[in-house]
């Protein structure tokens, strides 16, 4: 399989991984030749990248870090809870969240177990999914990234459970913001941006007095937009005044935001998202958190086409544990000329560097 940009696919191309919705229902099966209309639908669904069949890479497989069952259950729990907060059922917001806490805790324990049991580096590109609402998927993605960082930092089980719960609910305050502002494709007005910024305080106020929600989890909602240099919000906290969880969430939240397709911006690839984090290290983001994140996430995902500084081009086959930016690559070309495919391990060739990543699909 090969990872390509959806808008580069030609009619007749076959998917190597099915497209599902957030309930796990298959929308387009693997192996089905895509029509122009189907490709347009994928673009309309704001799916940036898909895996396609290709003869030279047909044995390469991108495995999800988290099982489909856990993934679907998490998204469904978030969706049900957040929608209940939006609806008028005569229930208090606190009651709705408190009722869902047990389910959230079960999801977090499942995620922690799977993250610890899977030795592969974390990548979310292998789960090609159509979602109904960005916030549901974003909340789960941020939870995965936050827990991956927490595990690398050797946090205790109790700390990880509190971190996971806080990450799942970090954007709960956005349920109090009108949908037309949340999903606005253009630039927000100053008044609209102030309303969006209020989600941090609103989320904290929803969570802080709930008996089954640790105060540290509530601080995830409050502090995930704070920055080390005091340029963040809502309190413009600096350095060590920001809680550990706030520092972790800042990294996880920004990375998922820039690597996910939004109504106003195309998604970046993981290595591009990491560059954003590095650019803000020491000013916006804590160096220790960024390094922990870097060691947990696959920077060059399986199926991605990469070109090296020595003129070779190939497709990422698998990851090297502990070397997130040094995967094993199947070389297909040398200086623009096709060669008999062979495996090349970047871990054993430290002088060779990735200079370009390509997402172009070949003609079907």
TrEMBL record:
InterPro entries documented for this protein: HD/PDEase_dom (IPR003607), HD_GYP_dom (IPR037522)
The organism's place on the tree of life at top rank: Bacteria
SMART domains in the cross-refs = HDc
Q: Name one Pfam family in it.
A: HD_5
Q: Where is the HD-GYP domain?
A: 113-309
What name has this protein been given in UniProt?
A: HD domain-containing protein
Question: What organism does the UniProt record list as the source?
Answer: Bacillus suaedaesalsae
Upper taxonomic lineage: Bacteria, Bacillati, Bacillota, Bacilli, Bacillales
């Amino acid at each position: 399989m090969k990872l390509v940009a959806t808008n580069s696919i030609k009619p007749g191309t076959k998917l190597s991984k099915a497209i599902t919705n957030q309930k796990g229902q298959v929308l387009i099966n693997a192996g089905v030749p895509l029509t122009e209309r189907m490709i347009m639908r994928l673009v309309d669904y704001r799916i940036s990248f898909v895996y396609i069949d290709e003869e030279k890479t047909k044995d390469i497989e991108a495995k999800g870090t988290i099982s489909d069952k856990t993934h679907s259950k998490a998204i469904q729990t978030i969706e049900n809870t957040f929608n209940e907060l939006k609806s008028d059922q005569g229930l208090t917001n606190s009651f709705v969240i408190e009722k869902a806490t047990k389910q959230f805790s079960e999801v977090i324990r499942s995620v922690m177990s799977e993250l610890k049991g899977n030795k592969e580096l974390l990548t979310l590109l292998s789960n090609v999914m159509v979602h109904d609402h960005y916030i549901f998927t974003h909340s789960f993605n941020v939870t995965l990234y936050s827990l991956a960082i927490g595990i690398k930092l050797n946090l205790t089980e109790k700390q990880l459970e509190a971190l996971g719960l806080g990450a799942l609910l970090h954007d709960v305050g956005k349920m109090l913001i009108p949908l037309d502002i949340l999903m606005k494709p253009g630039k927000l007005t100053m008044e609209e941006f102030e309303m969006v910024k209020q989600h941090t305080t609103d989320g904290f106020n929803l969570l802080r007095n709930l008996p089954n929600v640790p105060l540290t989890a509530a601080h995830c909602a409050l502090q995930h937009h704070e920055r080390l240099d005091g340029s963040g919000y809502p309190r413009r906290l600096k350095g060590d005044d920001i809680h550990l969880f706030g520092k972790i969430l800042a990294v996880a939240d920004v990375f998922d935001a820039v690597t996910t397709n939004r109504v106003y911006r195309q998604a970046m690839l993981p290595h591009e998202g990491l560059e954003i984090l590095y650019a803000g290290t020491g000013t916006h983001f804590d160096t220790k958190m960024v390094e922990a994140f870097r060691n947990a996430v696959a920077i060059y995902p399986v199926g991605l086409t990469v070109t090296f500084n020595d003129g070779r081009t190939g497709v990422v086959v698998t990851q090297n544990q502990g070397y997130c930016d040094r995967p094993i690559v199947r070389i297909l070309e040398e200086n623009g000329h096709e060669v008999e495919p062979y495996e090349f391990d970047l871990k054993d060739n430290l002088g060779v560097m990735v200079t370009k990543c390509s997402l172009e699909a070949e003609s079907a």
